[in-house]
Amino acid sequence: MLLFQLQGSDDRPIYARIAEQIKFAVASGVLRPGDLIPSVRDLSRQMVVNPNTVARAYRDLQQEKIVDPVRGTGLQVAQGAAEVCRDLRKAIVRDRIRAAIQEARQTALEPTEIEAILRDEWTRSNGAPH
Amino acid sequence: MLLFQLQGSDDRPIYARIAEQIKFAVASGVLRPGDLIPSVRDLSRQMVVNPNTVARAYRDLQQEKIVDPVRGTGLQVAQGAAEVCRDLRKAIVRDRIRAAIQEARQTALEPTEIEAILRDEWTRSNGAPH
Amino acid sequence: MLLFQLQGSDDRPIYARIAEQIKFAVASGVLRPGDLIPSVRDLSRQMVVNPNTVARAYRDLQQEKIVDPVRGTGLQVAQGAAEVCRDLRKAIVRDRIRAAIQEARQTALEPTEIEAILRDEWTRSNGAPH
Amino acid sequence: MLLFQLQGSDDRPIYARIAEQIKFAVASGVLRPGDLIPSVRDLSRQMVVNPNTVARAYRDLQQEKIVDPVRGTGLQVAQGAAEVCRDLRKAIVRDRIRAAIQEARQTALEPTEIEAILRDEWTRSNGAPH
DNA sequence: GTGGTCTAGACCACC
DNA sequence: GTGGTCTAGACCACG
Protein backbone atom coordinates (compact mmCIF):
# COMPACT_ATOMS: atom_id res chain seq x y z
CA MET A 1 0.00 0.00 0.00
CA LEU A 2 1.26 3.39 -0.97
CA LEU A 3 2.22 5.61 1.91
CA PHE A 4 2.72 9.29 1.52
CA GLN A 5 3.60 11.51 4.40
CA LEU A 6 5.10 14.91 5.10
CA GLN A 7 8.70 14.87 6.15
CA GLY A 8 10.06 16.91 9.00
CA SER A 9 11.39 20.43 8.74
CA ASP A 10 10.76 21.96 5.37
CA ASP A 11 9.42 25.39 4.70
CA ARG A 12 8.10 24.67 1.26
CA PRO A 13 4.32 24.67 0.84
CA ILE A 14 2.57 21.43 1.58
CA TYR A 15 0.95 21.16 -1.84
CA ALA A 16 4.35 21.37 -3.52
CA ARG A 17 5.73 18.59 -1.39
CA ILE A 18 2.74 16.38 -2.13
CA ALA A 19 3.14 16.93 -5.85
CA GLU A 20 6.83 16.19 -5.57
CA GLN A 21 6.21 12.93 -3.77
CA ILE A 22 3.88 11.81 -6.51
CA LYS A 23 6.45 12.71 -9.13
CA PHE A 24 9.17 10.80 -7.34
CA ALA A 25 6.89 7.79 -6.97
CA VAL A 26 6.38 7.88 -10.71
CA ALA A 27 10.05 8.39 -11.39
CA SER A 28 11.05 5.41 -9.28
CA GLY A 29 8.40 3.15 -10.79
CA VAL A 30 6.27 2.81 -7.69
CA LEU A 31 3.50 4.41 -9.70
CA ARG A 32 3.34 3.44 -13.34
CA PRO A 33 1.51 4.93 -16.31
CA GLY A 34 -2.13 3.92 -16.11
CA ASP A 35 -2.13 3.55 -12.31
CA LEU A 36 -4.72 5.53 -10.42
CA ILE A 37 -3.32 7.86 -7.83
CA PRO A 38 -5.10 8.12 -4.45
CA SER A 39 -8.27 10.18 -4.39
CA VAL A 40 -8.10 13.68 -2.96
CA ARG A 41 -10.25 12.62 -0.05
CA ASP A 42 -8.23 9.52 0.76
CA LEU A 43 -4.89 11.21 0.53
CA SER A 44 -5.99 14.20 2.56
CA ARG A 45 -7.20 11.88 5.31
CA GLN A 46 -4.04 9.82 5.16
CA MET A 47 -1.79 12.87 5.37
CA VAL A 48 -3.96 14.79 7.83
CA VAL A 49 -4.10 17.70 5.49
CA ASN A 50 -6.81 19.96 4.16
CA PRO A 51 -8.40 18.42 1.03
CA ASN A 52 -7.96 21.72 -0.77
CA THR A 53 -4.24 21.29 -0.36
CA VAL A 54 -4.21 17.90 -2.03
CA ALA A 55 -6.51 19.21 -4.74
CA ARG A 56 -4.06 22.01 -5.39
CA ALA A 57 -1.22 19.50 -5.77
CA TYR A 58 -3.28 17.42 -8.17
CA ARG A 59 -4.21 20.48 -10.18
CA ASP A 60 -0.53 21.25 -10.63
CA LEU A 61 0.16 17.66 -11.65
CA GLN A 62 -2.55 17.85 -14.28
CA GLN A 63 -1.13 21.04 -15.68
CA GLU A 64 2.25 19.36 -15.98
CA LYS A 65 0.57 16.41 -17.74
CA ILE A 66 1.88 14.01 -15.11
CA VAL A 67 -1.63 12.73 -14.47
CA ASP A 68 -4.76 12.55 -16.61
CA PRO A 69 -8.33 12.75 -15.40
CA VAL A 70 -10.48 9.69 -16.04
CA ARG A 71 -14.12 10.65 -15.97
CA GLY A 72 -15.93 9.35 -12.96
CA THR A 73 -12.93 7.37 -11.82
CA GLY A 74 -10.04 9.53 -10.74
CA LEU A 75 -6.61 10.56 -11.89
CA GLN A 76 -4.27 8.18 -13.61
CA VAL A 77 -0.57 8.50 -14.27
CA ALA A 78 -0.13 9.76 -17.80
CA GLN A 79 1.60 7.81 -20.52
CA GLY A 80 4.79 9.79 -20.91
CA ALA A 81 4.96 10.54 -17.19
CA ALA A 82 7.63 8.09 -16.14
CA GLU A 83 10.28 9.50 -18.39
CA VAL A 84 9.27 13.07 -17.68
CA CYS A 85 9.48 12.44 -13.95
CA ARG A 86 12.83 10.74 -14.15
CA ASP A 87 14.26 13.72 -15.98
CA LEU A 88 12.49 16.08 -13.65
CA ARG A 89 13.81 14.32 -10.59
CA LYS A 90 17.38 14.51 -11.77
CA ALA A 91 17.00 18.13 -12.77
CA ILE A 92 15.53 19.03 -9.39
CA VAL A 93 18.32 17.32 -7.54
CA ARG A 94 20.93 18.93 -9.72
CA ASP A 95 19.41 22.37 -9.32
CA ARG A 96 19.33 22.17 -5.56
CA ILE A 97 22.87 21.02 -5.29
CA ARG A 98 24.01 23.68 -7.69
CA ALA A 99 22.19 26.36 -5.71
CA ALA A 100 23.65 25.13 -2.43
CA ILE A 101 27.18 25.24 -3.81
CA GLN A 102 26.66 28.61 -5.40
CA GLU A 103 25.37 30.08 -2.18
CA ALA A 104 28.27 28.61 -0.31
CA ARG A 105 30.64 30.38 -2.69
CA GLN A 106 28.88 33.67 -2.19
CA THR A 107 29.49 33.57 1.54
CA ALA A 108 33.19 34.00 0.95
CA LEU A 109 34.02 30.70 2.58
CA GLU A 110 37.29 29.19 1.44
CA PRO A 111 36.73 26.82 -1.51
CA THR A 112 38.67 24.18 0.37
CA GLU A 113 36.24 24.52 3.25
CA ILE A 114 33.29 24.16 0.95
CA GLU A 115 34.80 21.08 -0.62
CA ALA A 116 35.43 19.65 2.82
CA ILE A 117 31.81 20.18 3.76
CA LEU A 118 30.67 18.54 0.54
CA ARG A 119 32.80 15.46 1.14
CA ASP A 120 31.86 15.40 4.77
CA GLU A 121 28.15 15.55 4.21
CA TRP A 122 28.28 13.04 1.41
CA THR A 123 30.07 10.40 3.44
CA ARG A 124 27.89 11.20 6.40
CA SER A 125 24.78 10.60 4.31
CA ASN A 126 26.24 7.25 3.25
CA GLY A 127 26.93 6.25 6.80
CA ALA A 128 23.39 6.83 7.98
CA PRO A 129 21.22 6.39 4.90
CA HIS A 130 17.71 7.57 5.34
CA MET B 1 33.44 51.57 0.49
CA LEU B 2 30.90 49.03 1.58
CA LEU B 3 28.52 47.92 -1.11
CA PHE B 4 25.44 45.96 -0.35
CA GLN B 5 22.99 44.95 -3.00
CA LEU B 6 20.29 42.43 -3.66
CA GLN B 7 21.41 39.49 -5.75
CA GLY B 8 19.38 38.00 -8.55
CA SER B 9 16.74 35.33 -8.17
CA ASP B 10 15.99 34.48 -4.57
CA ASP B 11 12.58 33.98 -3.13
CA ARG B 12 13.56 34.77 0.43
CA PRO B 13 12.26 38.03 1.85
CA ILE B 14 14.37 41.09 1.28
CA TYR B 15 14.90 41.80 4.97
CA ALA B 16 16.33 38.31 5.46
CA ARG B 17 18.79 38.78 2.64
CA ILE B 18 19.88 42.12 4.02
CA ALA B 19 20.47 40.62 7.43
CA GLU B 20 22.39 37.76 5.87
CA GLN B 21 24.64 40.11 3.94
CA ILE B 22 25.50 41.96 7.12
CA LYS B 23 26.26 38.69 8.87
CA PHE B 24 28.50 37.57 6.05
CA ALA B 25 30.27 40.91 6.05
CA VAL B 26 30.96 40.44 9.73
CA ALA B 27 32.00 36.83 9.21
CA SER B 28 34.51 37.78 6.54
CA GLY B 29 35.94 40.65 8.54
CA VAL B 30 34.72 43.42 6.27
CA LEU B 31 32.76 44.68 9.25
CA ARG B 32 34.47 44.34 12.60
CA PRO B 33 33.21 44.57 16.18
CA GLY B 34 32.76 48.21 17.05
CA ASP B 35 32.19 49.32 13.47
CA LEU B 36 28.99 51.16 12.76
CA ILE B 37 26.83 49.49 10.15
CA PRO B 38 25.22 51.73 7.49
CA SER B 39 22.29 53.77 8.75
CA VAL B 40 18.80 52.59 7.94
CA ARG B 41 18.23 55.56 5.70
CA ASP B 42 21.55 55.26 3.86
CA LEU B 43 21.22 51.58 3.21
CA SER B 44 17.62 51.86 2.13
CA ARG B 45 18.61 54.54 -0.35
CA GLN B 46 21.58 52.53 -1.56
CA MET B 47 19.53 49.36 -2.05
CA VAL B 48 16.45 51.14 -3.36
CA VAL B 49 14.33 49.59 -0.68
CA ASN B 50 11.88 50.93 1.86
CA PRO B 51 13.58 52.08 5.09
CA ASN B 52 11.21 49.89 7.09
CA THR B 53 12.53 46.84 5.30
CA VAL B 54 16.08 47.66 6.33
CA ALA B 55 14.86 48.47 9.83
CA ARG B 56 13.27 45.07 10.01
CA ALA B 57 16.56 43.42 9.09
CA TYR B 58 18.39 45.49 11.69
CA ARG B 59 15.86 44.63 14.34
CA ASP B 60 16.44 40.96 13.69
CA LEU B 61 20.18 41.50 13.93
CA GLN B 62 19.71 43.16 17.28
CA GLN B 63 17.69 40.29 18.61
CA GLU B 64 20.46 37.95 17.55
CA LYS B 65 22.96 40.17 19.35
CA ILE B 66 24.91 40.69 16.13
CA VAL B 67 24.67 44.47 16.53
CA ASP B 68 24.24 46.81 19.48
CA PRO B 69 22.36 50.09 19.44
CA VAL B 70 24.30 53.23 20.33
CA ARG B 71 21.62 55.75 21.19
CA GLY B 72 21.37 58.56 18.72
CA THR B 73 24.37 57.29 16.82
CA GLY B 74 23.55 54.06 15.09
CA LEU B 75 24.13 50.36 15.31
CA GLN B 76 27.55 48.91 15.91
CA VAL B 77 28.78 45.39 15.41
CA ALA B 78 28.68 43.61 18.77
CA GLN B 79 31.75 42.24 20.45
CA GLY B 80 31.22 38.54 20.04
CA ALA B 81 29.65 38.98 16.63
CA ALA B 82 32.58 37.98 14.42
CA GLU B 83 32.85 34.50 15.82
CA VAL B 84 29.11 34.03 15.97
CA CYS B 85 28.77 35.04 12.33
CA ARG B 86 31.58 32.82 11.17
CA ASP B 87 29.95 29.86 12.87
CA LEU B 88 26.58 30.88 11.54
CA ARG B 89 27.84 31.17 8.00
CA LYS B 90 29.41 27.74 8.05
CA ALA B 91 26.34 26.23 9.67
CA ILE B 92 24.09 27.77 7.04
CA VAL B 93 26.23 26.45 4.20
CA ARG B 94 26.46 23.03 5.78
CA ASP B 95 22.74 22.82 6.41
CA ARG B 96 21.86 23.68 2.86
CA ILE B 97 24.24 21.17 1.40
CA ARG B 98 23.06 18.51 3.79
CA ALA B 99 19.44 19.20 2.89
CA ALA B 100 20.23 19.04 -0.81
CA ILE B 101 21.97 15.69 -0.46
CA GLN B 102 19.28 14.29 1.77
CA GLU B 103 16.58 15.25 -0.67
CA ALA B 104 18.57 13.72 -3.48
CA ARG B 105 18.65 10.44 -1.57
CA GLN B 106 14.94 10.55 -0.94
CA THR B 107 14.25 10.67 -4.65
CA ALA B 108 15.59 7.16 -4.95
CA LEU B 109 18.30 8.24 -7.35
CA GLU B 110 21.25 5.89 -7.48
CA PRO B 111 23.95 6.99 -5.02
CA THR B 112 26.48 6.85 -7.81
CA GLU B 113 24.35 9.27 -9.77
CA ILE B 114 24.12 11.65 -6.83
CA GLU B 115 27.85 11.50 -6.32
CA ALA B 116 28.36 12.20 -9.99
CA ILE B 117 26.16 15.24 -9.77
CA LEU B 118 28.03 16.49 -6.70
CA ARG B 119 31.38 16.17 -8.42
CA ASP B 120 30.04 17.63 -11.59
CA GLU B 121 28.53 20.70 -9.98
CA TRP B 122 31.54 21.28 -7.79
CA THR B 123 34.00 21.32 -10.67
CA ARG B 124 31.56 23.34 -12.73
CA SER B 125 31.41 25.94 -9.96
CA ASN B 126 35.19 26.06 -9.97
CA GLY B 127 35.31 26.60 -13.68
CA ALA B 128 33.03 29.62 -13.58
CA PRO B 129 33.71 31.13 -10.17
CA HIS B 130 31.33 33.75 -8.97
CA MET C 1 -15.20 35.39 25.53
CA LEU C 2 -11.67 36.64 25.51
CA LEU C 3 -11.26 40.33 26.01
CA PHE C 4 -8.00 42.07 25.41
CA GLN C 5 -7.62 45.79 25.80
CA LEU C 6 -4.94 48.37 26.39
CA GLN C 7 -4.67 49.53 29.97
CA GLY C 8 -4.26 53.13 31.01
CA SER C 9 -0.97 54.93 31.34
CA ASP C 10 1.97 52.89 30.18
CA ASP C 11 4.82 54.15 28.08
CA ARG C 12 5.77 50.79 26.68
CA PRO C 13 5.01 50.21 23.01
CA ILE C 14 1.59 48.85 22.16
CA TYR C 15 2.91 45.70 20.52
CA ALA C 16 4.83 44.82 23.68
CA ARG C 17 1.74 45.20 25.81
CA ILE C 18 -0.27 43.04 23.44
CA ALA C 19 2.35 40.33 23.54
CA GLU C 20 2.45 40.54 27.33
CA GLN C 21 -1.30 40.16 27.61
CA ILE C 22 -1.19 37.04 25.51
CA LYS C 23 1.60 35.65 27.64
CA PHE C 24 -0.31 36.36 30.82
CA ALA C 25 -3.43 34.77 29.37
CA VAL C 26 -1.39 31.67 28.68
CA ALA C 27 0.23 31.80 32.10
CA SER C 28 -3.12 31.98 33.84
CA GLY C 29 -4.62 29.20 31.77
CA VAL C 30 -7.16 31.35 29.92
CA LEU C 31 -5.39 30.28 26.75
CA ARG C 32 -4.12 26.74 26.67
CA PRO C 33 -1.68 24.91 24.40
CA GLY C 34 -3.39 24.11 21.13
CA ASP C 35 -5.85 26.99 21.40
CA LEU C 36 -5.92 29.43 18.52
CA ILE C 37 -5.22 32.99 19.55
CA PRO C 38 -7.38 35.74 18.04
CA SER C 39 -6.63 36.51 14.41
CA VAL C 40 -4.57 39.58 13.63
CA ARG C 41 -7.55 41.24 12.01
CA ASP C 42 -9.98 40.43 14.80
CA LEU C 43 -7.72 41.57 17.57
CA SER C 44 -6.74 44.74 15.76
CA ARG C 45 -10.41 45.59 15.32
CA GLN C 46 -11.19 44.75 18.92
CA MET C 47 -8.33 46.85 20.27
CA VAL C 48 -8.75 49.64 17.75
CA VAL C 49 -5.19 49.28 16.67
CA ASN C 50 -3.47 48.87 13.33
CA PRO C 51 -3.25 45.23 12.19
CA ASN C 52 0.48 45.62 11.69
CA THR C 53 0.89 46.42 15.35
CA VAL C 54 -0.83 43.20 16.35
CA ALA C 55 1.17 41.34 13.73
CA ARG C 56 4.35 42.69 15.27
CA ALA C 57 3.31 41.36 18.66
CA TYR C 58 2.47 37.98 17.17
CA ARG C 59 5.77 37.82 15.36
CA ASP C 60 7.59 38.37 18.63
CA LEU C 61 5.52 35.63 20.24
CA GLN C 62 6.49 33.28 17.47
CA GLN C 63 10.17 34.00 17.92
CA GLU C 64 9.79 33.22 21.60
CA LYS C 65 8.06 29.94 20.66
CA ILE C 66 4.97 30.95 22.62
CA VAL C 67 2.79 30.37 19.57
CA ASP C 68 3.09 28.21 16.47
CA PRO C 69 1.78 29.07 13.03
CA VAL C 70 -0.76 26.71 11.50
CA ARG C 71 -0.64 27.48 7.81
CA GLY C 72 -3.75 29.13 6.54
CA THR C 73 -5.46 28.74 9.88
CA GLY C 74 -3.89 30.97 12.46
CA LEU C 75 -1.56 30.87 15.40
CA GLN C 76 -1.94 28.34 18.16
CA VAL C 77 -0.47 28.33 21.62
CA ALA C 78 2.64 26.14 21.56
CA GLN C 79 3.01 23.01 23.62
CA GLY C 80 5.52 24.14 26.20
CA ALA C 81 4.08 27.64 26.33
CA ALA C 82 2.08 27.44 29.55
CA GLU C 83 5.07 26.65 31.70
CA VAL C 84 7.29 29.11 29.89
CA CYS C 85 4.75 31.87 30.38
CA ARG C 86 4.23 31.12 34.04
CA ASP C 87 7.95 31.32 34.62
CA LEU C 88 8.16 34.42 32.50
CA ARG C 89 5.39 36.14 34.38
CA LYS C 90 6.95 35.47 37.74
CA ALA C 91 10.37 36.50 36.51
CA ILE C 92 9.00 39.76 35.15
CA VAL C 93 7.28 40.59 38.40
CA ARG C 94 10.33 39.66 40.42
CA ASP C 95 12.66 41.70 38.25
CA ARG C 96 10.54 44.79 38.51
CA ILE C 97 10.27 44.58 42.24
CA ARG C 98 13.96 43.91 42.58
CA ALA C 99 14.78 46.91 40.41
CA ALA C 100 12.47 49.14 42.40
CA ILE C 101 14.06 48.13 45.69
CA GLN C 102 17.56 48.43 44.34
CA GLU C 103 16.89 51.90 43.06
CA ALA C 104 15.39 52.85 46.39
CA ARG C 105 18.61 51.76 48.09
CA GLN C 106 20.72 53.75 45.69
CA THR C 107 18.94 56.93 46.64
CA ALA C 108 20.46 56.66 50.09
CA LEU C 109 17.08 56.50 51.73
CA GLU C 110 17.12 54.92 55.16
CA PRO C 111 16.42 51.18 54.91
CA THR C 112 13.69 51.57 57.51
CA GLU C 113 12.04 54.14 55.32
CA ILE C 114 12.18 51.86 52.31
CA GLU C 115 10.72 49.02 54.30
CA ALA C 116 7.96 51.31 55.52
CA ILE C 117 7.13 52.25 51.96
CA LEU C 118 7.07 48.61 50.91
CA ARG C 119 4.66 47.67 53.69
CA ASP C 120 2.60 50.74 53.11
CA GLU C 121 2.17 50.20 49.39
CA TRP C 122 1.50 46.52 49.80
CA THR C 123 -1.33 47.01 52.28
CA ARG C 124 -2.63 49.89 50.22
CA SER C 125 -2.76 47.67 47.15
CA ASN C 126 -4.73 45.13 49.18
CA GLY C 127 -7.21 47.75 50.28
CA ALA C 128 -8.04 48.86 46.78
CA PRO C 129 -7.48 45.77 44.67
CA HIS C 130 -7.42 46.21 40.98
CA MET D 1 35.67 64.27 44.50
CA LEU D 2 32.19 63.71 43.13
CA LEU D 3 31.82 60.70 40.93
CA PHE D 4 28.86 60.24 38.69
CA GLN D 5 28.49 57.28 36.44
CA LEU D 6 25.85 55.38 34.55
CA GLN D 7 24.69 52.19 36.21
CA GLY D 8 24.20 48.93 34.35
CA SER D 9 21.00 47.86 32.68
CA ASP D 10 18.46 50.64 32.51
CA ASP D 11 16.47 51.61 29.52
CA ARG D 12 15.68 55.13 30.66
CA PRO D 13 17.28 57.92 28.68
CA ILE D 14 20.75 58.93 29.75
CA TYR D 15 19.84 62.55 30.41
CA ALA D 16 17.11 61.49 32.82
CA ARG D 17 19.48 59.31 34.76
CA ILE D 18 22.02 62.10 34.99
CA ALA D 19 19.40 64.51 36.31
CA GLU D 20 18.26 61.91 38.80
CA GLN D 21 21.75 61.37 40.10
CA ILE D 22 22.15 65.08 40.70
CA LYS D 23 18.86 65.19 42.53
CA PHE D 24 19.79 62.27 44.72
CA ALA D 25 23.15 63.85 45.50
CA VAL D 26 21.28 66.95 46.63
CA ALA D 27 18.75 64.92 48.59
CA SER D 28 21.43 63.05 50.47
CA GLY D 29 23.43 66.18 51.22
CA VAL D 30 26.42 65.34 49.07
CA LEU D 31 25.59 68.48 47.12
CA ARG D 32 24.33 71.39 49.19
CA PRO D 33 22.59 74.63 48.25
CA GLY D 34 25.18 77.01 46.87
CA ASP D 35 27.50 74.26 45.66
CA LEU D 36 28.48 74.36 42.01
CA ILE D 37 27.62 71.26 40.04
CA PRO D 38 30.19 69.96 37.53
CA SER D 39 30.40 71.79 34.23
CA VAL D 40 28.73 70.24 31.21
CA ARG D 41 32.10 69.63 29.63
CA ASP D 42 33.66 68.03 32.71
CA LEU D 43 30.74 65.81 33.44
CA SER D 44 30.37 64.71 29.84
CA ARG D 45 34.02 63.75 29.75
CA GLN D 46 33.80 61.99 33.10
CA MET D 47 30.75 60.00 32.08
CA VAL D 48 31.87 59.43 28.50
CA VAL D 49 28.68 60.90 27.19
CA ASN D 50 27.75 63.42 24.57
CA PRO D 51 27.87 66.98 26.04
CA ASN D 52 24.44 67.64 24.58
CA THR D 53 23.09 64.91 26.79
CA VAL D 54 24.48 66.50 29.95
CA ALA D 55 23.23 69.87 28.79
CA ARG D 56 19.79 68.41 28.37
CA ALA D 57 19.86 67.06 31.94
CA TYR D 58 20.96 70.45 33.26
CA ARG D 59 18.25 72.19 31.32
CA ASP D 60 15.67 69.99 32.98
CA LEU D 61 17.19 70.69 36.39
CA GLN D 62 16.95 74.40 35.78
CA GLN D 63 13.32 74.14 34.79
CA GLU D 64 12.63 72.30 38.02
CA LYS D 65 14.48 75.04 39.93
CA ILE D 66 16.89 72.49 41.38
CA VAL D 67 19.85 74.50 40.10
CA ASP D 68 20.35 78.18 39.33
CA PRO D 69 22.65 79.63 36.70
CA VAL D 70 25.43 81.88 37.99
CA ARG D 71 26.61 84.14 35.18
CA GLY D 72 30.05 83.26 33.96
CA THR D 73 30.53 80.65 36.64
CA GLY D 74 28.22 77.71 36.25
CA LEU D 75 25.20 76.17 37.87
CA GLN D 76 24.69 76.13 41.59
CA VAL D 77 22.33 74.13 43.70
CA ALA D 78 19.30 76.30 44.44
CA GLN D 79 18.26 77.34 47.92
CA GLY D 80 15.17 75.29 48.42
CA ALA D 81 16.61 72.39 46.46
CA ALA D 82 17.54 70.08 49.34
CA GLU D 83 14.03 69.80 50.66
CA VAL D 84 12.52 69.56 47.21
CA CYS D 85 14.89 66.76 46.31
CA ARG D 86 14.30 64.86 49.50
CA ASP D 87 10.57 64.88 48.84
CA LEU D 88 11.15 64.07 45.22
CA ARG D 89 13.39 61.19 46.07
CA LYS D 90 10.85 59.63 48.37
CA ALA D 91 8.05 60.20 45.90
CA ILE D 92 10.04 58.59 43.12
CA VAL D 93 10.85 55.57 45.20
CA ARG D 94 7.27 55.25 46.32
CA ASP D 95 5.93 55.55 42.80
CA ARG D 96 8.19 52.88 41.44
CA ILE D 97 7.35 50.46 44.18
CA ARG D 98 3.67 51.17 43.78
CA ALA D 99 3.90 50.61 40.04
CA ALA D 100 5.79 47.36 40.50
CA ILE D 101 3.20 46.03 42.92
CA GLN D 102 0.33 47.14 40.77
CA GLU D 103 1.77 45.44 37.73
CA ALA D 104 2.35 42.32 39.73
CA ARG D 105 -1.34 42.28 40.65
CA GLN D 106 -2.37 42.70 37.06
CA THR D 107 -0.56 39.54 36.05
CA ALA D 108 -3.03 37.46 38.02
CA LEU D 109 -0.33 36.09 40.26
CA GLU D 110 -1.57 34.92 43.64
CA PRO D 111 -1.34 37.76 46.20
CA THR D 112 0.51 35.41 48.50
CA GLU D 113 3.07 34.84 45.78
CA ILE D 114 3.52 38.54 45.28
CA GLU D 115 3.97 39.06 48.97
CA ALA D 116 6.50 36.27 49.06
CA ILE D 117 8.45 37.92 46.29
CA LEU D 118 8.36 41.25 48.08
CA ARG D 119 9.72 39.75 51.30
CA ASP D 120 12.22 37.69 49.43
CA GLU D 121 13.64 40.57 47.43
CA TRP D 122 13.72 42.85 50.43
CA THR D 123 15.73 40.46 52.59
CA ARG D 124 17.91 39.63 49.62
CA SER D 125 18.69 43.31 49.14
CA ASN D 126 19.64 43.50 52.80
CA GLY D 127 21.94 40.54 52.56
CA ALA D 128 23.94 41.91 49.69
CA PRO D 129 23.66 45.67 49.98
CA HIS D 130 24.85 47.50 46.94
C1' DG E 1 -10.47 33.16 5.70
C1' DT E 2 -5.29 33.16 7.64
C1' DG E 3 -0.51 35.31 8.36
C1' DG E 4 3.65 37.49 5.86
C1' DT E 5 5.92 41.02 3.18
C1' DC E 6 6.57 45.44 1.47
C1' DT E 7 5.74 50.32 0.66
C1' DA E 8 4.78 55.07 2.10
C1' DG E 9 4.86 58.39 5.25
C1' DA E 10 4.12 60.51 10.02
C1' DC E 11 5.78 61.29 14.60
C1' DC E 12 8.78 60.62 18.55
C1' DA E 13 12.86 60.28 21.68
C1' DC E 14 17.57 60.57 21.83
C1' DC E 15 22.28 62.40 20.97
C1' DG F 1 21.56 63.18 12.43
C1' DT F 2 20.07 58.31 14.59
C1' DG F 3 16.71 54.29 15.41
C1' DG F 4 11.82 53.09 17.07
C1' DT F 5 6.82 53.10 16.79
C1' DC F 6 2.60 53.39 14.57
C1' DT F 7 -0.69 53.95 10.82
C1' DA F 8 -2.60 52.96 6.22
C1' DG F 9 -3.09 50.17 2.62
C1' DA F 10 -1.49 46.90 -1.17
C1' DC F 11 -0.24 42.32 -2.58
C1' DC F 12 0.89 37.46 -1.98
C1' DA F 13 0.88 32.48 -0.56
C1' DC F 14 -1.59 29.16 1.80
C1' DG F 15 -5.66 26.28 3.15
Key attributes of the depicted protein:
homotetramer, 130 residues, mainly alpha, Arc Repressor Mutant, subunit A, 2 domains, two-stranded antiparallel ribbon, elongated, DNA-binding
Q: Could you describe the 3D structure shown?
A:
Chain A starts with 13 loop residues before the first helix and ends with a helix. The first copy, chain A, has 2 domains: 70 residues, Orthogonal Bundle (Arc Repressor Mutant, subunit A), CATH 1.10.10; 39 residues, no CATH class. In chain A, helix 1 packs across helix 4. The first copy, chain A, is mainly alpha-helical and 130 residues long. In chain A, strands 1-2 form a two-stranded antiparallel sheet. Chain A is built from 5 helices and 2 strands; from the N terminus they run αααββαα. Chain A is elongated and about 60 Å long. Chains in contact: A-B, C-D. At the A-B interface, helix 4 and helix 5 of A face helix 4 and helix 5 of B. The structure holds a DNA duplex (15 and 15 nucleotides).
